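Narrative of activities, Objective 1.

The group set out to show that a structural description can be obtained from nothing but a protein's sequence at a throughput compatible with the screening campaign. Below is one input-output pair from the validation batch, recorded exactly as produced.
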Amino acid sequence: MTATAATTPTPTATASVQTIDEAALRASWAELEEDLSGEAGIVVMPVGGDGDDAVALGDVTSAMAWSTIKVPIAVAAVAAHPGSAQISSLVQQAITQSSNEAAEELWESLGSSDQARAATDKVLAAAGDRETEAGENRTLGRTAFGYTTWDLDDQATFLSGLACTDAADPVITRMGQVIDDQSWGLGNLDGAHYKGGWGDYEGTYTSRQMGLIPVDGTLDDSPAVVVTMAVIEPDGDGTDDLDTIADWVEDHLDDLPSGSCASG
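Output recorded for this entry:
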């Protein structure tokens, strides 16, 4: 499939955001860390916010993207192939089932490796993340897209902007339809739209998620919180810790920074 020229999706203007008690959040997070078996980190920020609105907690601030990078790849493919039923099916598989094969086909639909990187980078930058480069790892250099280094704060900035990007709606919709065996962590929260990723590299096992969590109701009618989080576990499975962190998010949802995309 040959990609067509497409306008890079850009976020709409954003509305004001809620202020929060950051000191109280930090104290609560410190208590939570005692119940975790691995090292963890989280960034929370409002939909429609920017880096100045983000709150970062925990020791883990960056990790390999793993399957979370499928989101900007999918957005790039939708933009490059408007109206394609084949791309729509691949997006459904890559996002709701986390199919690696479907993600590879989406990547290849963008052209050569350099063209695919460039198209994905444009999506990242348009949504606000001008630091991350698809297929670039700070240790390994240029590599497979799943090994991309993606800092939690950059990922949160990206998702905050993406939530206000109309052209990304087909992908964000699929993030709300994740199948049951992928629905740990943020998948336990009502109305969550999210994508997870996990993998092992040389004995370092990382589990991570990014998601949009409505405060009350749905993404269509409620302010929402952007959450990006990661756990590094020596024993190979951080999903239990992500479940615990998601419970903390739910308990503190009214205390977290939330916001909405501006209308009109």
